[in-house]
Amino acid sequence: MTDRLAAVPARVRAFWQNEAGQIGLLFAIGVTALMMLTGASIDYIRSSRAKTNLQNAADAVVLAVARDVDTVSSNDTLKQMARDRMATMLPNYTFDITSVSTAGGTLTINAQGSLPAGLAAVAGFSTLRQRVTSSAVWGTGKLEVALVLDSTGSMSTYNRMVELKKAAAALLAELQKSEAGLVKVGIVPFDVNVRVPTSNKTASWFKTDWWVSLFWSGCIADRDQNNDVSDAAVTTSSSTKYPGALCSSNQLTTIQPLTDNYTDLYAKVNALSPAGNTNITIGLAWGMAILSSQAPFSEGVVPGTRDVTKIIVLMTDGDNTENRWTSSATSIDARTQLACQAARDSSIVVYTVRLMEGNEDLLRNCASSDDNYYDVEQSADLVPAFQAIGEKISQLRLSQ
Length: 400
Prior knowledge:
6-stranded mixed beta sheet, 400 residues, alpha/beta
């Protein structure tokens, strides 16, 4: 026995002195480490994808379940409702709704999921866990919504106007589900100008010259800069007033002020008719105007009123091409950016929809968030995009 023990160090020394032995050992260690690292990376990717899917499902479930909070007697029932809905969205995935809370008028759902570990199990991790939280606010908050809709000539192609009418009607149908008196909607069709009834010719906020006055049929051009990009109050100064203009096309539909009369709203949508060039800025400016409590419209409540959310949904299918001063898209885009900023600064929630064509960066940046920007590649996809917006803005919103 003593001889065997004395021989061990010698054999070890011989192994290390043998170059082939050294290389073999280092290779074995390196391959093992590489396999573990690769396995851990694969498991991380799997877990990240599972967490994203779990978060998306939780976001959808919390919105759906929140609609029933007032009619459900216990959190346990809400938890089971959430489980049942999530099960249809995440087949073949192990998950649980770990808790549900309805404190402070906010429904909060915590969910946990798991996947069996792959090579990460070698390091002692048998299970990969994913945890997410999603919340939604519900209540009787009121909404004022301005639909700012492109009515330019390009909307006559590829069935765009037909699909816009369907999409706007679908959004109205979603909003109409709300309790009476909680939602008002206005509609701003635009091309280079917007249009109002000719009865406004004597309004204190209106101005024109003698030539336009002779032939005026209701069209309004951009206000003097910098009033053209905001809802700045009209004063006795001519620079603050809205200038009459000759219509570039007699097909432009007049603005619909805020109302909860859905018969009038559906009729206004059906009356949309495409013609003329594009001036997104004026559409946004008048979107702000109809949400306002001051001239030229006064149907909106005072900005900042408790429990009232003001929203603009802007849809366009092209680039800016003409305003009161120029046909330079770059120059008009700069005005549009200022109008977008003014709307957001006024706490207006802005949704933008780009239909097939248009300045993607301009519209994405105009929206209040990336989630509020919709890039619609085909006319037929406009309806589901507007339905999604309608669902988002009807009394519920994700709070995180």
